[in-house]
Amino acid sequence: MMNGNVNLEDLIGDIETNLVGRNVHFRESMTSTNVVAKKLAEDGAADGTVVVAGKQTAGRGRYGRSWFSPAGSISMTVILRPDRPVAAPVASAIGTVAACGAIELNTPLSPRIMWPNDVFVNGRKVAGVLAEASSYLLIGIGMNVNVKEKEFPKDLRETATSLSEELGRKAEPSKLLGSLFLELDSLYTTIAVGETSILDAEWKSHSATLGRQVVVSENGSSYEGRAIDVSVEEGLVLETHEGARKIFPPDSSTLVRTA
Ligand code: BTN
Predict the structure, then answer these.
(1) 249-254: long-range contacts at Cβ-Cβ below 8 A with a sequence spacing of 24 or more?
(2) What's the rounded mean pLDDT across residues 30-46?
(3) Which residues line ligand 1 (CB under 6 A)?
(4) pTM of the model
């Protein structure tokens, strides 16, 4: 199966993962890979099943927002069935760290994680993660790969970018997707045995927020200070100018910008 973005046969032929991508459901166009994955998971899809779309017509973002996902972007969701419970913020972090890893393996770019789960390159968002945790996990990853600046809706043009825009040439979606599978597979393997330190270290080392002066907005209030810690499980620790500490849990609906 071949489309303009992803050569799936190449991908599946090459892939050497334990679990992730052993089953792949691919369609040129889907409403949302998270929605399709949820249905497959409810119907008993195996651990590690991945849903991939060439483009999405109703891509979902966090907080009920929509996610722009034209041809030229990666839209994928993995279904995981860990033996022990994994919280949604940990699942989100797996997706975010995997997205950074895939970009680093395939390009010279330096992806940074903007709290909590936005992947930025050169100050603009290039990938996002939407995770859901119930009796199984869904980790949905969207990445702008070969999307031209003028293709983005006007309201995103200032804040979003794509790998091709930052590279000045096309990136390779099949390779990026293959790397995403590998990264997800290895992170999942460590998390599944209760080992979270690798994920936390990767999270911290890619953080664009840690150590910076930031403004955190939560439920209509703003807090300004220095982000003195970010941790997958505990959240964002802010030290205010008065020296007080405030912790924002990883699943709190905060908006963080650098001051
Ligand atoms: C965000 O930053 O708001 C999260 C964006 C997540 C987008 C991905 S694309 C694949 C998967 N399917 C969806 O509908 N959303 C996620």
Answers:
(1) 249/89, 250/89, 250/92, 250/93, 250/116, 251/87, 251/88, 251/89, 252/218, 253/63, 253/218, 253/219, 254/115, 254/116, 254/216, 254/217, 254/218
(2) 98
(3) 32-34, 56, 59-62, 65, 67, 69, 75-77, 118, 128-130, 140-142
(4) 0.93
